[in-house]
Write a structure and sequence with these properties.
Subcellular location: Cytoplasm
GO molecular function: dITP diphosphatase activity; epoxide hydrolase activity; ITP diphosphatase activity; metal ion binding; nucleotide binding; XTP diphosphatase activity
Helix content: 25-40%
Strand content: 15-25%
Main location: cytoplasm
Protein name: Inosine triphosphate pyrophosphatase
Number of domains: 2
Pfam families: Abhydrolase_1, Ham1p_like
Radius of gyration: 25 Å
Distance between the termini: 44 Å
Structural class: alpha/beta
Largest sheet: 9 strands, mixed
CATH superfamily of the largest domain: Alpha/Beta hydrolase fold, catalytic domain
Strand order of the largest sheet: 1-2-3-5-4-6-7-8-9
Number of helices: 17
């Protein structure tokens, strides 16, 4: 069975496949020819928790995403505990058969909560198939289960028939606790970002007759996982899979104490803690999507995914980034990381008029003639919807004359205060090469100036879904959502594909 939902940003396919006479439901997006990322959900959720990533065209344009529901969860079959033994060993075996049935040879794993012990079991049995890991609040160390929550769970492991312990387990599947898992640890200003759909749909599945017994059996079997932690850790040390940590640090179930020990065992580790709770994607899916994109691009290229691609053209010439702005250079380098090396040079290029993309191309042509080799130039615009895109590429002159307050005042007579930040990076391999333009866009609202004034019009632009202006944001957060980041992601991907990456 297959159903497809199409919208303006993505295509998500909804499928069901038979594994051992059980229906396994899964969501899928992206081209099957691209590298695969398998998304393993946690408790009490389902593949629904990955809806944002599955709809993100920055990911689906380059990767093949698959998110299954485990047996007993979501839209997959829910046999009784008499007909199926709900253990992490069994769920990992079914997941392995599911992956093989889809003819997926190599893949990256996104593991969260219960998905971690399932995914790590897969890795122990199939280390040659694993390309990388993305870990969101998924534990593999004793430090991660040394808190009040797990103290109660351990009592249940020791005495599963004791009424006090049974009551604790039953309390984990109530509507109040399910909602608590989604909202606890989330900053007050971000709670409006948490859609009720998640905890309402999770509770619907939990409330099915017989599902309580399933959850009790599986939570009891979680007690088998700590004994496997040494094996998981040995796998990390021996095989050194690239890993990206994206962890909600206010999670009271899997706290940040469980994230830090990964640093002991993994050399190629990117580590990010977010000011939120258990379901980090609910509030930070945009930032995490960008990090995933950067991480997979870098590491899958390092694994020589494209080694046999005859279209790759290698180049050893350094790329010259045309800028005299030290802060801009710093931000670009921070976004690109160490994977690409830039030289900077200041050139007095003429100020041009026209459409943003045309301006960027012409400036890039001129820069390539000056440099005589590969060049990268940037133009940014701030566009007001009420003014049909103005000030656009002319925002620099508007800002010089009007200051941030004056920019905001341009919309005084308009109810519509929405706008967007636009970044065009243009790249040319040399004087005889037609420039390519990479466009990044972030929607937002034009607000009275707030925050430091050392970076252009940042004080008046508040990105959509956030309560801070660009100027107020922590640089690490801004660099995951900004128009510049989105454009640079495209640049980075192109340069890697054409041999410029280290």
């Amino acid at each position: 069975m297959s159903t497809t939902l199409t919208n303006s940003t993505s295509t998500i396919r909804y499928n069901t496949i038979k594994i051992d006479n059980q229906d396994i439901f899964y969501r899928e997006s992206g081209d099957k020819k691209n590298p695969t990322l398998i998304l393993l959900h946690g408790f009490p959720s389902s593949s629904h928790q990955y809806r944002h990533l599955l709809a993100d065209t920055h990911l689906t344009s380059k990767y093949h995403l698959i998110a299954p529901d485990y047996i007993g969860y979501g839209q997959s079959s829910m046999p009784s505990t008499k007909d199926f033994e709900y253990t992490f060993d069994n769920l990992s075996v079914v997941t392995e058969k599911f992956i093989k049935a889809l003819s997926i040879e190599k893949y990256s794993l996104y593991v969260f909560d219960y998905g971690a012990p399932i995914g790590y079991r897969l890795a122990l049995r199939n280390p040659e198939r694993i390309q990388s890991f993305i870990v969101q609040n998924g534990n593999a160390y004793d430090e991660g289960i040394d808190n009040a929550f797990w103290s109660n769970v351990k009592k249940y492991w020791a005495e599963p028939t004791k009424q006090e312990n049974i009551d604790f387990v039953l309390g984990l599947i109530t509507p109040q606790t399910t909602q608590w898992q989604y909202l606890n640890g989330v900053q007050e200003k971000d709670k409006s970002l948490v859609a009720p759909d998640g905890y309402v749909s999770d509770q619907y599945y939990l409330d099915r007759p017989g599902n309580g017994e399933i959850q009790a059996q599986l939570l009891f079997d979680y007690g088998t996982n700590p004994a496997k932690y040494p094996a998981f850790q040995q796998y990390f040390r021996q095989y050194q899979p690239p890993m990206l940590i994206v962890w909600g640090k206010n999670d009271e179930i899997f706290p940040a104490e469980g994230a830090y020990p990964y640093k002991r065992d993994l050399k190629n580790l990117e580590f990010h803690l977010f000011e939120t709770g258990h379901f980090t994607l609910e509030t930070h899916h945009q930032q995490i999507s960008t990090l995933i994109n950067q991480f997979l691009t870098k590491n899958l290229n390092n694994l020589n995914i494209n080694n046999n691609n005859p279209n790759i053209e290698m180049s050893k010439n350094p790329i010259v980034f045309i800028t005299g702005n030290a802060k801009k250079l710093e931000e670009v380098i921070q976004i690109l990381g160490s994977s690409l090396t830039l030289e900077s040079r200041k050139l007095d290029l003429p100020e041009l008029q026209g459409e943003p993309e045309d301006i960027s191309k012409e400036k890039c042509r001129l820069a390539a003639k000056h440099v005589g080799g590969p060049v990268l130039i940037e133009d940014t615009c701030l566009c007001f919807n009420a003014l049909q895109g103005l000030p656009g590429p002319y925002v620099k002159w508007f800002l010089d004359k009007l200051k941030p307050e004056g920019l905001y005042d341009l919309l005084a007579a308009h109810q519509d205060k929405t706008g967007y930040a636009l970044c065009n990076f243009a790249f040319s391999r040399g004087p005889d090469d037609e420039p390519i333009v990479f466009v990044g866009r972030t929607n937002g609202t034009i607000v009275p100036p707030r925050g430091p004034r050392n970076f252009g019009w940042d004080p008046v632009f508040q990105p959509e879904g956030y309560t801070e202006t660009y100027a107020e944001m922590d640089k690490s957060i801004k660099n995951t959502i900004s128009h510049r980041t989105k454009s640079l992601e495209l640049v980075k991907n192109y340069l890697f594909e054409h041999g410029y990456g280290n």
